[in-house]
Amino acid sequence: MELLxxxxxxxxxxxxxxxxxxxxxxxxxxxxxxxxxxxVTFIDLRDRTGIVQIVFNPQINEPAHTAAKDIRMxxxxxxRGTLMNRSAETINPNFPTGxxxxxxxxxxxxxxxxxxxxxxxxxxxxxxxxxLRYRYLDLRRPQMYANLxxxxxxxxxxxxxxxxxGFLEVETPFLTRSTPEGARDYLVPSRVNPGSFYALPQSPQxxxxxxxxGGFDKYFQIVRCFRDEDLRADRQPxxxxxxxxxxxxxxxHIFRLSEGMxxxxxxxxxxxxxxxxxxxxxxxxxxxxxxxxxxxxxxGLELRELTMLFRETQIKVFTDVVAKGGIIRGLIxxxxxxxxxxxxxxxxxxxxFGAKGLAWIRITxxxxxxxxxxxxxxxxxxxxxxxxxxxxxxxxxxxxxxxKVVCDVLSRLRLYLGDKxxxxxxxxxxxxxxxxxxxxxxxxxxxxxxxxxxxxTSPTEEDIALLDTAPGKVHARxxxxxxxxxxxxxxxxxxxxxxxQQKVFACLGIGEAEAQEKFGFLMEALSFGAPPHGGIAFxxxxxxxxxxxxxxxxxxxxxxxxxxxxxxxxxxxxPVDPKxxxxxxxxxxx
Length: 590
Description:
single chain, alpha+beta, CATH 2.40.50.140, eight-stranded mixed sheet, five-stranded mixed beta barrel, 22 strands, 29% helix, globular
């Protein structure tokens, strides 16, 4: 093993081109592949920019050629040599450097490597556990570098855009007090204040509102946030937001700003021209047509309301549900070629989604094919077919239950069928604003109303009076931006008046004493002339995932956690020394 000494890299491995032939270059990197051909050794040397072929010829440097025989995969090398054209028959069109090679005159082995647990290439995909356990090796893979380079460019693009719109980037604290914002907080014990805890922020929500009270007018931050909640492919315990807040605005200002930022990102990073303005849909319409408030509008298969059509049939399971205040909805698969087994297999799938069962009707040239057919008169069949526009080859799938269950099951079934039928365009971005959310929703377990977004969201002016009498009917000045079925960001106009904020707290069952204890600093700030303000926050991880065409957030995060919030590389979280716990006045009781 040798030292780098006074050598300086001339260029990266992906840089050499025919125009540089004849120049002496120094390149450095990792051994990607090694081949011995007729006494000459060829090595593909790799760094983050690409691969260049280096050649060890005994006629040029015998010691270097001899040393090259012991070089193995992932050794770290520095080489000096002369750039040469490859012969016509050896040009590799798969690499930008494929027309040239570096004839090595001097070699330095900077560091050997143990045998790696998986190949560092684009053809082999290691298991996810192996990738996370050896993340520093996984990061050498070209796709991971490309993903993180895209993420870097995304952040730069956003900063440049918002700077051009007059925003200031302001950092807010990571160590703050615990406030109820929906998910569990990560708590940090204070050594100098025994028995007291900081909380890592779920978002900078309160601080960005305080910046508006402070007169900053336009704030943004690309900020880390923390939520102690169950994980999935598009969720991590620590995540990054593009956080934005503005004063003296209406929702339209947020829409225009966000659309400009997103279209700029898509154009610069993906070469896509996205039409504006983005379409808008109310929360109520989204639930009726798609069964959820973040619909993927790239394909059809919209939900159909069936309650009135089927309530007077002899289908007992339907009539019983309707009698208990439930609903019946379904979706139509046109020109369906599913076999009977494929249809039957949808029932356990729907049950796994939460349904008690899945009813179906196939329209054939002989009429209805369905276990339900005998319970529906021919006259009623004709009425249903006419109302729904059913034709030969159509398959109607139906769920009857309480509205929440029906929406959840059918929305998930819709996505499953869209994927199974191959009707979801993979190379298309479809943005959608979802608006007019309810301010609150009733939590059956807690027996009280909880905020649909967060407790600082403003109700619409015309609904403020309903906070005392009919909270469930109050609409919020809230909005979400959805992209291809994922919630990309959400925001709202905030309560800038103290009296309205107090009404919202009361609606949520937060009494004066609790409000003062948890939010006293905010309430005090609102009493000192807070301007009307609002904002939005976008998930950087989700946006980067969609831009990269990845299936998981872990593909665009350098050092992610598993579904159990564990870092397989560092083995965090881990027990700590009892002395540390004593210093923090913390006792672990398992």
